[in-house]
Amino acid sequence: MKPADPQAAARGQLTALDGLRGVAVLCVILYHTGQLRFGWLGVPLFFVLSGHFITRTLHGRRELTRGRRARDFFRNRALRLAPLYLGICAAVTVLAAAGYHRRDIVDDLPYLWTWTFDLRTLGPGWAPNSVPIYDQFWSLCVEVQLYALWAALALLLPRRWFVRVVVALAVTGPLLRGLLYLLLEAGGEQAFLRPFTLAQSPVTYVEAFAVGACTALPEFRDRLAWAARGAVVLCAAVTAALAVGQGLRADLGYPITYPELHGWLWQYTVVALFFGALVHWASRSGAFARLLSWRPLVRAGVISYGMYALHVAVLGQLSPHFTHAPSGWSGSDLGYAALVLLITLVTAELSYRFLETPFLRRKRGSLTQRLAVPDGAFEEAGPNQKRTHQKRTNRKQKDREEIGVPAHE
């Protein structure tokens, strides 16, 4: 029997996780088109996935100095996120100069350009606006802020202390949100706004990031099976209780911002643990990983950043031309959703190929690159190249072991 190829197994894990990313972005889009009232939960799923990937990335390549790892990490993150994000910010700035939603956009521009759009609710006199382009950018800003926090923790703390801090953050989410709520209350923020501010705060999602990190750490990887099953049982029990207590609801008891039953305090935890279970199973061989490896779903995951960043603008242009039913399932609504998905997929694919990919090629030592060298690539090389390739292969194997990709998978 041919031994399993650990590099191929690791690439398979990334494929399944890309498929899960595709599920997340499709849920968010279908939430905005009205078919999935709980589809906004794709956002915390993104944060759990990010915690998994970023932890694997930061704890790989341990032979490099901390300074080099930090430079490569932030360089790669900037190359991944900045071109499309800043391109949209530039386009929005031009639109404002031309008079399109000028007052609202001008108020938002300082937050957009500084990656702090998630903090705009803390500004004086804040109120929601109707600019149909960048409402979703708060989550990209939260992501960047959590990247910075995670890099500081992973690069400055000894490994054992990093693991302890990750576990602490994974289990203290309700406490952190409760403290933030009290601070908002003490600061005089109106009660109805507090769940909204919490929903767009990095404090709220550091828990999801930490849960994702736990699924990537070899210290926990082989002991998470029972915890994953428990998380699914917990989420199922909570969902059933909400359904029985409130009647069958289209949002399954998970309304955005969790304004009911103090859900902002505890429901984020339930969801983070459930998504941690999904990430754990997606990163291991099995039926679930094979299901997520469906090629169209994987492709949606690969271009998910563009889909997420661009779909609100597509919604804004198309929505006025359709009649919307409360259920979201009328013929007009379904046609609207199909057209939004089609245009979003096409524009995201174009963005990925012609805007994002030229920058992605400049990344250094990313997780995908370290798993992308095919077997036999140096068969025709000379002895010096072969020795260099063998050193790199040994180093990659060490990286895989350190980031939790065991050789037997």
Number of helices: 18
Through-space gap between termini:
15 Å
Order of secondary-structure elements:
HHHHHHHHHHHHHHHHHH
Total DSSP E strands: 0
Mean pLDDT: 87
What share of residues is helical?
55-70%
Name the structural class: mainly alpha
Could you name the key traits of this structure?
mainly alpha, 2 domains, 409 residues
Task: Describe the fold and architecture.
With 409 residues, the protein is mostly helical. The protein folds into 2 domains: 357 residues, no CATH class; 36 residues. It is 70% helix and 0% strand. Helix 9 packs parallel to helix 12. The radius of gyration is 22 Å and the shape is globular.
Strands, helices and their partners?
Layout (H helix, E strand, L loop, with lengths): L5 H28 L8 H17 L7 H32 L4 H12 L23 H20 L2 H13 L1 H14 L7 H6 L2 H15 L1 H4 L3 H22 L16 H20 L4 H6 L2 H8 L1 H15 L12 H30 L6 H4 L12 H20 L7
